[in-house]
Design brief:
Length: 727
């Protein structure tokens, strides 16, 4: 005999079908805490058996499962007379419209996208369970009425039937009003709100009680243009209807696009008594349009900008460079003998090789540089640089060295080298087409001199090599001459405003070269094999300084030190970290090590082992520049990461760019779901700080709080014990 859970102390019985244990537990815990009786099934076969043994009130069904997928499970459920009335909500990480059409055709009542939002899961579960119960109650009421009709006299049959029909219509109208996913707002003739439905609260954040009696203008994103608003009102008054797109504002101040349909309700005399507005949140639809726009400006295989977008990026870079007295270099890169890869391994392998190369190039260039693919195995890179072209030359050398390593694709080791031609504005041309043409000429010259090389359209090699050798010669004695200094950028807790840690940043001031930026000397240190000795100096300096701070009673300051790829590849790095901590008596929990995807991508298996050893001794691991590469999520699954850092490129426009805001919010949500902390980098304005604080970011660093400062300056800051959030 089936249990009737509607009569027990529970909000309803829900069957969750999900093959991912973490998602299954998340949904089960969420709904159990909300008062539901939850049953679980990790696959389609068990789901069908469980439902047949006792039909639930609602099924949350994962679309993508091994064996019987969600679509087949739904079809079988709907073919079963005992189960075809059980509502099914599909769970899917996909945003494919075809999947939604197929799901609704099979009888699904709703879709919920992954990653899950707790409020959405609870709201939709509650709506469909309540709707199901209401439908059951309606059926029972209908049966009762029919029984009474049979007992009444023939004279009253018509009246009773009409009354039953009216009640059913009113009940159905009420259910539709309550259960619809679109927001409904009813106003009086003056535009004051008199009723709203639950979907309105879900979309806007306002409860019905908060808006009753308020003018409907409250829901608009900004003060409407009077002429446009008057035209809307006149259209509704004259024709009785208006529909179009609006920009609305939620209770929390967030704006979103909506599709509005407004109508009037008139009494028997034709006088307006009410206005009814139905609107839906079309943020997702806008996102789909954004994807279409993206594909029209990007290469389909690699996701890189295509030639159309490359022209726009070049024009922007050139205009900015002219204002700053700089130049723009265009690099044309071609893979040497790429045809042999297609001939030997097939075109599928060739396409995967191009994707790996595009990924590498994107991670290798600096922020602000542009990598494009023009077809085949030809790539272009747009670089803003100074007159000495130091960044351009360093980038070319780094790319050549990185691509020279064997690529492992589907278990196959493939060797790829490249040739690069470079043309520079001011001397080699001003238009994009002219620079590309001249860079192609230089590319041909690079192949002529033996491939796996780069060449300028004009002869600049001697001067650039001398500059590079000058840095190399000075760099080798920098530690002995005590030219390095560690600066510390404070990391601020967003709950207390206190400085809870710092990122250690290396600075070099040379008597011959002056202040040399880290992005110039650190790549050369890696190239010349000096990065390990410099990294050891930094680690010892930081540990010695932390010991001083701890002894001075300034608090247990936690400092994060960046690990370069060369250090991470060195087997002696992990033992050295252990011995250094012991040497200075610093507890491991006060040392953090920051890595980037590029740091560990050379040998991921070796990286996993090293990171786990560091975790075992108590050192925390931060993943820097998260989200700027293609493999971030796979790394999160494999590597024992404690902290995710939101890259400055997403923070810069987080308050004005919806895409950057969505990425930042996704990083925060993802990190917290994985029990990680989140640190935002490059926070420069109060608006950025307040936005990320409100969204649950844990810590921040950036110029808004403090530039990187030397140990003395950081010590003074710690002694002040200021709340930096109140600045």
């Amino acid at each position: 005999m089936h249990r009737d859970l509607s009569e027990q102390h529970t909000k309803g019985e829900v069957l969750i079908v999900e093959d991912t244990p973490a998602s299954l537990k998340l949904l089960s815990d969420l709904l159990t805490e909300a008062g539901y009786y939850v049953r679980q099934a990790p696959n389609g076969e068990l789901a069908l058996w469980t439902a047949q043994s006792r039909p639930p009130e609602l099924i949350l069904l994962d679309v993508r499962m091994p064996g019987i997928d969600g679509f087949e499970v739904c079809r079988r459920l709907k073919d079963n007379p005992d189960l075809n009335q059980v509502p099914v909500i599909f769970l899917s990480a996909q945003h494919d419209t075809d999947d939604k059409v197929r799901g609704f055709a099979l009888g699904a009542v709703d879709f919920i996208a992954k990653p899950f939002q707790a409020e959405e899961i609870l709201a939709r579960t509650d709506a469909h369970v309540r709707l199901g119960r209401a439908q059951k109650a309606l059926a029972e009421e209908r049966a009762l009425l029919e029984e009474r009709v049979a007992e009444r006299t023939a004279e009253l049959a018509k009246e009773i039937e009409q009354r039953r029909a009216n009640e059913e219509f009113l009940r159905l109208a009420s259910q539709v009003f309550e259960a619809t996913q679109d927001a409904i707002v009813v106003t009086d003739r003056e535009g004051r709100i008199v009723a709203t439905n639950p979907a309105f609260t879900h979309i806007s954040g306002y409860t019905s009680k908060e808006v009753l009696g308020q003018n409907a203008n409250l829901l608009l994103a900004r003060e409407p243009d009077l002429a446009a608003f008057d035209a809307l009102v006149q259209s509704v008054t004259k024709t009785g209807h208006w529909s179009g797109e609006i920009l609305a504002r939620r209770k929390n101040g967030e704006t979103y696009p909506g599709l509005l349909s407004a109508s009037v309700v008139r009494d028997a005399q034709g006088q307006v008594v009410n206005h009814v507005a139905v609107f839906m949140d079309i943020t997702e639809r806008k996102a789909e349009q954004h994807l279409i726009d993206f594909l029209s400006n990007h290469d389909a295989l690699t996701g890189l900008p295509n030639r159309l977008l490359a022209r726009q990026r070049f024009a922007q870079t050139l205009n900015a460079a002219r204002r700053e007295g700089r130049c723009v270099a265009v690099m044309c890169l071609d893979l040497d003998r790429f045809k042999s890869i297609n001939d030997s391994y097939g075109h599928d392998m060739g396409d995967k090789a191009l994707q790996v190369v595009s990924h590498y190039l994107t991670e290798t260039v600096r922020e602000g540089d542009t990598v494009t693919r023009q077809g085949g195995d030809e790539f272009q890179i747009i670089v803003a640089d100074d007159a000495q072209l130091s960044a351009t030359m360093a980038l070319a050398q780094k790319i050549l060295a990185g691509l020279r390593k064997e690529l492992v694709i589907d278990g196959q080791q493939i060797t790829v080298t490249s040739s690069i031609g470079i043309a520079v504005s001011l001397t080699d041309g001003e238009s994009f087409d002219e620079l590309v043409r001249n860079a192609d000429t230089a590319l041909f010259r690079a192949k002529e001199i033996g491939r796996d090389n780069y060449a300028f359209f004009t002869e600049r090699m001697d001067a650039e090599i001398r500059d590079k050798l000058a840095i190399q010669s000075q760099l080798r004695g920098a530690i002995a001459r005590d030219e390095f200094e560690v600066h510390y950028q404070p990391q601020v807790c967003l709950k207390t405003g206190a400085v809870v840690g710092a990122e250690a940043l290396l600075r070099w001031d040379n008597a011959v070269l002056g202040k040399v930026p880290p992005n110039r000397f650190i790549p050369l240190a890696e190239e010349y094999g000096l990065v390990n000795s410099i990294g050891e100096w930094v680690l010892e300096s930081v540990c010695a300084q932390m010991k001083v701070w701890h002894e001075q009673g300034l608090g247990k300051i936690k400092v994060a030190v960046n690990l370069a790829a060369g250090q991470f590849a060195n087997d002696a790095t992990v033992p050295y970290v252990e011995s250094t901590l012991r040497k200075f008596g610093v507890a491991p929990e006060y040392l953090g090590l920051e890595i980037t995807e590029g740091t560990v991508m050379g040998d991921p298996n070796k990286a996993v082992a090293a990171l786990r050893r560091l975790k075992d001794i108590g050192v925390s691991i931060s993943l820097d520049d998260f989200g700027t590469g293609y493999s971030s999520l796979s790394y999160l699954k494999r590597f024992p990461i404690d902290v995710l850092k939101i890259d400055k490129s997403f923070v810069d426009d987080v308050t004005t760019n919806s895409a950057d805001a969505a990425i930042a919010l996704s990083v925060i949500s993802l990190a917290h779901n994985l029990n990680m902390r989140v640190i935002a980098e490059g926070v420069e304005t109060r608006e950025q700080m307040e936005f990320l604080t409100a969204r649950g970011c844990d810590e921040m660093q950036g110029y808004y709080f403090s530039r990187p400062i030397n140990a003395e300056g950081f010590t003074a800051l710690m002694r002040e014990r200021r709340n930096l959030l109140t600045m």
